[in-house]
Amino acid sequence: MEKKPIDISFLGRSTLDAAQQLLGKEIETVIDGEVTSGFITEVEAYLGSNDRAAHTFDGKVTKKNAMMFEPYGHIYVYTIHGHNCMNFVTTTEQAEGVLIRAVEPSIGQNIMAERRGRSKNLSDGPGKLTEALGINRNDHNGMHINGTILKIYGGKTPKKIEATKRIGIDNKEEAVDYLYRFIVKGNPHVSRFKGIKDIDNGWK
DNA sequence: CGTTAGATCTGCT
DNA sequence: GCAGATCTAACGA
Fold it and tell me: What family does the database annotate (predicted)?
């Protein structure tokens, strides 16, 4: 059966809802004719001007974050510490988005291993999954979801979603306590995994 | 220019 | 758990 990309209109409504709905979705990229995909296991929501931890806090527009002000369906890729991170832009009016922090490798694991130069921990972190899926800022910042390069499919359904504090924003005052990070409970393909691995990796 | 901050990763202790 | 690597863009002189 041929897979069909899903309707992404849910990204246009609530960012927090969209973040949770993205868990389990399958991201597929086609880079230089090579297909790779993974199921989303970890995301973080960034709520634009109201969120001190977001690049777009206080409505500040820079060359780097300008893509966040585009309507939902665009992809915002930014570089940090020599790594790339990928966001799905949400809503139309606000500069909000969902950071894809980790995926469970599916198609093309051998390609991911080659790109990463290792066979373990292929995509359990924001900088890792972009490298595994072949995403870079030069070529892919501003592209559209369900365009020619990146598509998302229905994928799997998490048994239980866990909300935790976000990671790497220790200097963001009150925003450090917001529970805007969502993971598939029991799935080991998340950053800083410490829990107990579920028998089905947390999928239904 | 030079300095600094940033939603990171890896390896070592 | 912590230090070091590594790179881009913003900002001030």
Answer: Belongs to the DNA glycosylase MPG family.
A65 occurs within a structural domain: yes
User: Is the Cβ–Cβ distance between A202 and A187 less than 8 Å?
Assistant: yes
Instruction: Write down which residues 79-98 in A have CB closer than 7 A to strand C.
Output: 79-82
Model-level pTM? Answer: 0.96
Beta strand ranges found along A47-177 (DSSP E)? 75-80, 83-90, 96-105, 150-153, 161-164
- Kindly report the length of chain A: 204
Domain that holds residue A178: 9-184
Angle between helices A126-133 and A109-116 (to 10 degrees): 110
The predicted-structure confidence for A39-93, as pLDDT tens digits, reads as follows 999 999 999 999 999 999 999 999 999 999 999 999 999 999 999 999 999 999 9
Q: Which of A161, A166, A176, A44 is nearest to A100 (CA)?
A: A44
Residue A3 lies in a domain: no
Chain A residues 45-74 with Cβ under 7 Å of strand C are: 60, 62-64
